[in-house]
Design a protein that fits this description.
By secondary structure, the protein is of the alpha/beta class. The protein is built from seven helices and nine strands; from the N terminus they run E-H-E-E-H-E-E-H-E-H-E-H-E-H-E-H. The protein has a single domain, classed as Rossmann fold. A seven-stranded parallel sheet has the order 4-2-6-1-7-8-9, with helices on both faces. Strands 3-5 form a two-stranded parallel ribbon. The longest helix is centred in the C-terminal third of the chain and has 14 residues. It starts with 6 loop residues before the first strand and ends in a 6-residue tail after the last helix.
Length: about 210
């Protein structure tokens, strides 16, 4: 097992580009990839999507701990499937490589009646890369996410802005939080292996 902390990819909300960003980071670092919880879309899971976009031959894709059939919050999907997500069931896959972990939704997504996604990050002793996307309210959501991570003493490697650029929003977030800017990934018109390789050039050394 590598002494390097795993890198947990979380976002300021749902549908803001965690999977594409995870593919870019996995390719950039030739890292392993793990999605602990897949909630719905089992035939087109995030693991399969990232696998289809990564070109290097070093990456190992580790199986999900929970594969839930319904496309809802993990706690609801698990309840429909007759499962209770146990936070103690998660353990870091055995690897000597850098590990990219992709979360589901944002930090406060419930896993069960007591545990949230942020609790899983804490348990896995991971460092976070926070994915932000510019929209009305994104400054609020980004700073709230940053504060929540700080309160839990979870280390943050930095922030990646995904999608359309808003220079003023990005400037404010960076100056207020002091977070390292890891990169900016524009909205990709075509999402394929070459686009992911090209996007790797937009990511700084992590």
């Amino acid at each position: 097992m590598s002494e390097q902390k795993p890198i947990f990819i979380t976002g300021i909300g749902t549908g803001i580009g965690k999977t594409i960003t995870s593919a870019v980071l996995t390719e950039k670092l030739k890292a392993d990839y793990w999605k602990p919880i897949q909630s719905g879309d089992l035939d087109e899971s995030d693991t399969l999507k990232v696998k289809s976009l990564v070109s290097n031959t070093k990456t190992v894709f580790h199986p999900e701990t929970y594969r839930l059939t319904q496309p809802y919050s993990p706690h609801k999907s698990a309840a429909i499937d007759g499962v209770v997500i146990d936070i103690n069931a998660f353990s870091i896959p055995d690897t000597d490589n850098t590990l990219i972990i992709e979360g589901a939704g944002g930090l406060m997504v419930p896993l069960n009646e007591h545990d949230l996604m942020i609790d899983l990050i804490k348990k896995l002793q991971a460092e976070v890369i926070l994915i932000s996307q510019n929209y009305l309210g994104s400054i609020n959501h980004t700073i709230l996410s940053w504060k929540a991570l700080q309160q839990q003493d979870i280390p943050i490697k930095g922030v990646i802005f995904n999608g359309e650029t808003d220079t003023e929003s990005e400037r404010y977030i960076l100056q207020y939080t002091g977070l390292k800017l890891i990169g900016k990934i524009p909205k990709l018109e075509i999402i394929d292996k070459q686009a992911i390789i090209d996007a790797c050039e937009l990511i700084t050394v992590i």
